[in-house]
Amino acid sequence: MNTDIYDRGRETGRRLQAAIEHNLDGFWRAVADRDIDRNTVRTVATDHRDRLTEDTRSRIRGMADAAAVPYRDLLAFNLFEETLVTDGCTTAIAAGDAAADGETIFFKQSDKKGADEFEGENYHQHQQINVVSIENPADKNKIIGVTAAGSTAVKMGMNDEGVAIGSNISRTVTFDEEGTDSKDWAAASRGEYMRQGLLHGDTAEEVAKHITPMLFSDPMSSPGNIPIADAEKAIILEGEFTHLASEWVEDDVIGRANKFQALDHLARSREEIPSSYSRYERVMEVLEENDGDVTVETMRDLSTDHENGPGLESVCRHEEDHYTDETSLSAAIFDLDGEAPETSEIYIALGKPCHAWRTEEGNGWLNITADATEADVPDRFLTGEAWLEHYTEEAYEGERELAPLR
Prior knowledge:
By secondary structure, the chain is of the alpha+beta class. It is built from twelve helices and 14 strands. It has a single domain (86-390), classed as Penicillin V Acylase, Chain A, CATH 3.60.60.
């Protein structure tokens, strides 16, 4: 066991003890909802632990020990949470000259389902706590991103070589989210693939090349998109159990909601997944209207966009009928710098975007660079306090203007 990484895991576990308990409880609720035996999940997690590197397992063990939760439970959370509690999400990229400054801007809105039985002391409005995470290994790239408290996987992130990444589920005819068969949950985590790509790749192409062999040997836990970008280009990987495709753009705009575009023949119909169609069309409408002039403010405005809503079909998503509706929990914008990638800018909002982006910097959102350390990040973003304060299902209706980002 790498003791240095274990100790860093302990630091995270101490900081996030309550949030880890919260998210782990939610995970076990999702397991119970699928009528899957908890001990079976623990056993399968132990059997599949080699899907995570030894260093990653050391970090998880450190978190578990400091947070006083069973290691096997947190291991199972890291391996299987993404499938059992699926991510929705919306991504938008202006690659190269499609951005106003000629270098790529990457945006991701992170959406998630909750559950109405997630109540009590360890829950907050039935949802999963998001935090800012910084991983800085001695021999690999640094990663700054957004994670679920207790997870090593990234929801969206960027390394200090100026490569950004995000992902979302793609709802296809080949996957039943309500299924309980072991093949539906005992699979690999997209977020862990993304993390490994950022640790080892210095360009979008290198990150894609690092991830792709994993997708051939062990398909994603559920069908999904993995957009990757550097200052010049964007690559989107689309994959499911028997299909894998990619799309590459330079000096152009591209986006994804919860639907394949390259593998469009596998997508569910508009009648089945109207939000996936509506959000994708809205993203492309905004990007194409601003092609060549996309800024971080363009992406920030898209993050708070209530066109077709506010509700399930708007980019800034709000529950309509039930806590099992997907809803927006965080957002990130990556402004990539090819000449000095370590100075690439990161904008992160925790909680409901239409609220968080209207606060002062350091309250609901922050702006840091790729070479930032934990000392540069307000504690409220590292502990989940910012998320707890700004997550709500009420759409913003006040008079506060969106905060200037520069």
